[in-house]
Structure formats: structure tokens, C-alpha cells
Fold glutaryl-CoA dehydrogenase (ETF).
Amino acid sequence: MSDQRKAAAPDARDFLALDRELTDEERDIRDTVRAFAADELLPNVADWYEAGTIPDARGLAKRLGALGVLGMHLEGYGCAGVGPVAYGAACRELEAVDSGLRSFVSVQGSLAMTAIHKFGSEEQKREWLPGMAAGDAIGCFGLTEPDSGSDPGSMRTRARRDGDGWVLDGTKMWITNGSVADAAVVWAATDDGVRGFLVPTDTPGFTANTVRHKLSLRASITSELVLEGVRLPGSALLPGSRGLGSPLSCLNEARYGIVWGVVGAARACYESALEYATTREQFGQAIGGFQLTQRKLADMVVDVNQAQMTALRIGRLKEQGACHHNHVSFGKFANVAAAQRVARTSRSVHGANGITLEYPVMRHMANLETVATYEGTEEIHALSIGQAVTGVSAFR
């Protein structure tokens, strides 16, 4: 017998009904973060972007802490302990507003807090994680240097023994939240290889300088960290950190958030184009009725939904403990490129209006240029995927 049931027409905003694949808890978290983003962030983000800062970063941290998204994927110490897909859905809703706001959460939770959670002593965890989860303390993650980006093994920051303590010297660059942080996780070369250090930012010799004149991620605080003879007690060492694998494992957590986050940026650009195309009239009809515009909308909805499928699949693999770092490279490489295509296409649909802050598309478009570079450039992720499928490293 033939099936007489009629399938419902696709939802233009969830064409493949992918949100039906979320559990009730994951949907609740999605809805909670989406509502917070709409009420607390979206009305302000254009002004923050234009100003080139987050005026009240500490207040924002506390609101995000109360929401429960800071370190939300970690267990214990005041953290929510939710699953990877719930965390991903939260990142998606935050980046639908702005990549800089998702970065604020990612750096706090997936970089600084994850480093302490994975490699810190019990004393360090108890001292810092509850306050960071609540947003009472802000953290940053110092790995990248002015001359050491894609090759962190060439870092020049050094930590040398000084009696029972350590002395750190060096410079870190492009550090999100650096100039508003209470603690910096700083990675430095030692005689025993790369180790992590938990550095209170009021330590003498530590300076954070805000990076100015950015044209991307403007609703984010980016800093240079300078360490000149910074003396730390032995207890500042993250005892579980050993080699470059330690910071890279933290970066993988942050990259996973990007895999989901850029879906939000792409979705926001597509939805803005859809709304604009169905209301903007030229030549006596809405521009969405023209073939070329419909082709653009079709390309965008395909990219958004395929990127969401990729994020969801990698999230489920992560739940199963089957997510390899190459899977995350696949997701970042594919989804950032898809989001960039959507942002560019959406900008063209909006015409001249697309370059203003009245619409989100140019802001997302500029932000995604940075997202394509940080947490591993697209070239590095392409080589990671290439190595995975050939078994041959092309990095050197």
C-alpha cells in the first residue's frame, strides 16, 4: 500500500528539521540561550561593534555566568556539565548574534577553564573554577605569539626555575579577554618542554595591552600580554600539563565550539536575506521573486543546513567518545567556509543596505574573516584533513 500521508512543507528557517534531532534538554538550553541573546545581546551588539569594545565586560561575564554557559561542558566546580551538543547549540545561538560574543564564552570555558580543569591541581581548580563559572572571575589563554601563530612549537616565551618558583618572560598576542582577565593561562617553554602556568594578572611584571584599530571581531576585547620577569610560586604550574599536546587539546575544545558557532552566524545572515528579499520591492515586486535572488537563497539554505548537519554529527561523535581531532578540523574547515559564502551572498542580496550596521551581514562577514584564521587557519585544517586521509604529513 502506498503511504497516503503528506509531508509538511519544509520550514524555511530549519529546512531539514535538524533541530528535531535535539533532545528535550538540548532544546531547552537552545531556547534559553536564544532568548537571552535576543533580549540582552542583540539590541546592543551593533553599538559594541561600532565602539570596538564590550563596555561592561565584567557585567556581561556575570550575566553569562548566571545563564550557566561559562564552562558549561565541564563537570563539577560549579559547572553545568552538559553534553557536547547542548554546548554546541549554546555556541550557535551566541554566534548568531556575534562571533566576538561566542569567543568570550569559548575562551573562558573551552580554553582557560578547560586548561585548569584538565591540567590544574585540585587547589587551582577549587580556587578558580567556581568563580569563573559564575562570571565573577575572567580568564584568558596565552599561547599565540607575535612570531608564533600556526607553529606554536617555536614560541619564545620562557619559564625558568628560580628556587622553588618560576620566572616567566615573553609576549603573547591576539589574546581574547586579556586586558579584563583576572587570570591568564600562559604556555611557556621550559627545560622540560612546554608547560602551562596560571598567572594572576595583578602579578608584578605582567601587562595586558588592548589591541586597537581592529576591523573584525570588534565586539570583543583583544590584547597583547607582556611578561617581564614575572615571578610565580611553584604552585602556579599546571602540574598535569606536558608538551604542546596540552594547549592543543584545549584548542580542540574551542574549535568544536566554532564548528557550531559559525552555523549561527550563517543562519543569521540567511534569515536576514530571506526577510529582506521578501519585503524589498524593485520593478514592481519583491526581489525574492526574481530567479537570481532565489538561486542565492537556495545556495544559502543548503550551506546553512549542511553546516548544521556537520556540527550535529561531530557533536554526537563527541558524545560517544569517538570524535578525533581531525573530525573537528573537518568541521571548522567546512563550516567556516560555508558561513563565509552565506555572509557574502547575503550581503549581495541586501545591496547597499548590507554594508550598514542596521543589518547584521557585513558585521558577520568581517568577523568570519578572523574566525577563518584563529584556532588554526583554514590552511592548517586543510593539511590536517589531508594528513588524515593520506597518512602523510605535509606540515614540514
Notes: The chain has three domains: 18-134, 139-236, 245-390. The chain has a mean pLDDT of 94. The longest strand covers residues 165-176. The domain at 139-236 is CATH 2.40.110.10 (Butyryl-CoA Dehydrogenase, subunit A; domain 2).
